[in-house]
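Let's inspect a concrete specimen:
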Amino acid sequence: MSKFKFTVGPWNVHTGADSYGPETRQPISLEAKFAKFAELGFSAVQFHDDDVVPNMNDLSEEEIKAEARKVKAMLDKYGLAAEFVAPRLWMDSHTADGGFTSTSAADREFAMWRAYRSIDIARELGCDLIVLWLAREGTLCAESKSPVTATKQIVEAINNMLRYDDTIRVCIEPKPNEPIDRSFCGTIGHVMGVSAATIDPKRVGANLESAHAVLAGLDPANEIGFALAFDKLFTVHLNDQNGIRYDQDKSFGVENLRQAFNQIKVLCENRYWEKGYVGLDVKAMRTTSDEDSYEHLKNSLEIFKALEEKAARYNYDYADKLIAERKFEQLEMYTMNLIMGLV
């Protein structure tokens, strides 16, 4: 029995379309996904704003809230909570040049409108967390934006959100690249700096995604630990990544079991189950069939729980003895034997 509670987003069960090819699977309704998520043992659902209200740009504020209440009723039907809402700024025509850091004042105003509506939606769903994946808050042309101005614009946008609702928490999900090539907030360290500059740093934290840390050339467990050290890990997106390529969102643990084990180990050592959910931001392979649309979620849960059990059996007394004697080769092999089931 896992100590953790797990979440997943509707986008993690998708049609298989990518930048180079069309859909390979049929779409699945939101309610059907909720029913399956509950069956698989997930406790909550992560949302983009337009997962909840698809045509929100065409609706009034009250109409958006009314649509959100319909989704809340659907969540209640299946015993699910909402973990967070994220404004999907990167997919809108208004934000081709970014949202909060756009060179267009009108587009920056639109980005704030979507951020405020995300807060409204979150409140209707019964959650207090807003996640910002700052996907286009960077540059394709290095000279197109001042990094100083842009960083201040991000801070001010978050301040506006904190002023709009004095109980909401804002969580930045850093990524060093893709779809832009120079991000203004690419790592957990950047998130800490932005958080410290806001009007209420206690309400501004981080969402660490395993793959994004790998893309930055960093170790995901260390990034998780860095955020935990400052009590800033508001949520996590666990998955896997085959090196510094495009963002793959592979099933958790399928590429690097030791790296996956150490992410769970640091979460267990700091009793993260008391602080937040474990999000699985994983996507099915493009060649996956319709009937296997949820296998990647099952696999990720199975790997997580197996490694959690191994982390619970980690012999800290033995490890401390090896560390004191600087027998790091033995410590490394002990860890590998534990992961392989040999001890």
